[in-house]
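Re: [help] complex structure
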Amino acid sequence: MTLEKLRPGQAGTVLALRLEGPLRRRLRDLGLVEGARLRCLGRSPLGDPSAYLICGAAIALRRTDCRRIEVEVEPWNAS
Amino acid sequence: MERVIALAGNPNVGKSTLFNRLTGLRQHTGNWTGKTVAAAEGRCGDYRLVDLPGTYSLLPHSEEEQVARDYLLRGEAEAVVVVCDACCLERNLNLVLQCRELCQRVLVCVNLLDEAERRGIRVDCTALSLGLGLPVVGITAREKGSRERFLAALDALWDAPAPPRRSPPYGQALETALRHMLCLAEGESLPARWLCLRLLAGERLPASETLRRAAEAERLDLGLTPAAVEDLLSAALSREAARLTALSVTGEERAYGARDARLDRIFTGKTWAFPMMLLLLLGICYLSIRGANLPSAWLSRGFARLEELLRRGFAALNAPIWLEGLLLDGAYQSLAAVVSVMLPPMAIFFPLFTLLEDAGFLPRVAYNLDRPFQRCRACGKQSLCMLMGLGCNAVGVTGCRIIDSRRERLLAILTNSITPCNGRFPLLIALLAMFFAPAGSALVPAALLSLILTGSVLATFAATALLSKTILRGEPSPFVLELPPYRRPQVGRVLLRSLLDRSLFVLGLLRLAALLDAPGRFFGLDGAILLAFLLGLPANETVLPILLMLYRASGGLGDASGLGEIHGLLLQNGWTGVTALCAVIFTVLHWPCSTTLLTVKKETGSWKWTALAALVPTMMGLILCAAVFSLTCQLR
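Output below.
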């Protein structure tokens, strides 16, 4: 599934970045590479963007951009 | 001998704070990403320190990263210090590894150790140093002993000859290609191994024709596109960073702790985010107005006493009456009135704002407000530029560099002056207190001021939407915003800006005021008000004093030494509630000051955009004023 479907509190692993150009590089610099783990921290009060914990930092991403990031949900007990 | 040291690091890792501590400079630091937009320089003992803009990587895809990398490539710096945040070391190591590849002398400085410890994260600097093959020094940017430890580590860099540059393992295929290319790379001006890697990843850099051809051939041999090579390189860096983190850090999963989560539920949660933002805004406005009353009275009294002394001095010198009238009754009294009314709210507003900034609240505002900006096809970071504009529009316009897309940056630049800057603040407060609030109340003007600020946010949305539907059409670009951890703000490090640094000037331009009277009245204002705004172009701070001088010179009596007296003078000159309302609107929506306009010219490089930056808010203001005026006329 894609990243925007990850619910607040859920953790996941990045499978693929279906992105090109500057955003792809920026996200890779932030530690969003294949195999990286992340967690959805919450959504902003108007529903978009959402905040994700990536490499120890909270990063806000818009839904349209998240649609292009393929993730796998981790079972609940993962932090 | 002076040595040049470059300070590099991710945004918001306390780099600027460290730089200030080392050099004693007062470069402003804030708890948000992208505060340093150009390199700053300072001296510290035998070292010349260059503070590079915050970057996540040395692969240039934004202006700041380009600045940082170009500087390192020029080789002026004899050593690079990479400042890291102990709370998210893994990501910071990415930049460390890239610097280790490009530069010979690298010192890793793990900052915010105290912050990390509070969160239960431990960093083993010795293990990290062994793993990296680089010296590592752990510091807390805010404590005293850190400076000495840091300088000792810096001095120790020169005890041994420069070590060779090192790379993480890139895998057999790439390493073989690299070996082939390295034979051809002798005599290149850039570091050979780094240059070969970048050429393989398809980047255009100054290199010999042979080497460039070789890179292409090797890539074909590997059967990879430049983008695929880039992916392999960044994956190798990430793997190495993860390996080093596992070696040296424990508890890193606690970086975003329960406290942050709790605070985020309040400040960015569905229920409380907007009420909290409004409440904070109201609180700041209230404290600025309320807290200003006392120092205002002191200043007013002090000025009166000084005036007495001056008068005695004039008498003793036998100065002519007209000179005394011009200097004391004209210039001095206006200055005294304005300083005592305007200085205190500015001096209170700023520290309060700095506290919020320090605490990490401001990026949350951008996070909360991104949705409407997205609707306007703009970037949510624009709200950060607006917040900077609240201090000074010229700063806000420069701050728009944090927005990567050119179109979205222009949107932010052109609409920035709709946010009233600190120069216009006291004028607004004075008008509100005089005309729309019961005497002595601070809460009512504070509420009204918050209302006006909210209104200016809405006006910014309107202008942004309008521009992006007409002359600045285009697709919204991706949005990536880092939300820094909440930090305890430092009350001691709070800035007081020099205020009213521009001298006031008396100008006998009453005829011009008369000429402007008719158009002024159409918009619910008068000639003097319009002229005061025109003459206030160099600095918005001067609008009120100029207005008072114009009125006084045209025969108005009174010695205005406080808010009450100014009120009287305005009433004498035919001001009503409607005039005041129109003046308030026009204060928020008119042309930016000359400094801001020049900054817009510098940032956009075009007079066309500069003119538009003046035209958009002015038109909005004039239309709104005319509407308010004709509406109230009809109601009457």
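The first strand of chain A starts at residue 11 and ends at 17.
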